[in-house]
């Protein structure tokens, strides 16, 4: 997965030291506040996020635009 320096974020979430379930819940709540098509930039330190976030996006239908392991861009699915 590569970073996407050109991606514009509509909201930013600092995931801090949250892990797995707690991080995914925080991302869900942040994405729920976005309008369809808007982008969330997540900054986190959870090493498992590289696997957890793509899986969560596949399950929920949101789009993972890119990430480098500590910063991820998630686009809310269209209605």
Strand order of the largest sheet: 1-2-4-3
Global outline: globular
Main structural class: alpha+beta
Query: Number of helical segments?
Result: 2
How does the major sheet shape up?
4 strands, mixed
How far apart the termini lie comes to: 26 Å
Count of strand segments: 4
Written as H for each helix and E for each strand, in order along the chain, the element string is EHEHEE
- Uncertain residue ranges: none
The radius of gyration over CA amounts to: 11 Å
Residues in β-strands, percent: 25-35%
Mean pLDDT: 92
Proportion in helices: 25-40%
Structure write-up:
32% of the residues lie in helices and 28% in strands. The chain has 79 residues and is α+β, with helices and mostly antiparallel strands. The chain has a four-stranded mixed beta sheet with strand order 1-2-4-3, with helices on one face. The longest helix has 13 residues. The radius of gyration is 11 Å and the shape is globular. The relative contact order is 0.28.
In short:
This protein has 2 helices and 4 strands. The radius of gyration is 11 Å and the shape is globular. The protein is of the alpha+beta class and 79 residues long.
Structural features:
single chain; 79 residues; alpha+beta; 4-stranded mixed sheet; globular
Protein topology:
Elements: E1 11-16, H1 20-32, E2 39-44, H2 49-60, E3 63-67, E4 71-75
Parallel strand pairs: 1-2
Antiparallel strand pairs: 2-4, 3-4
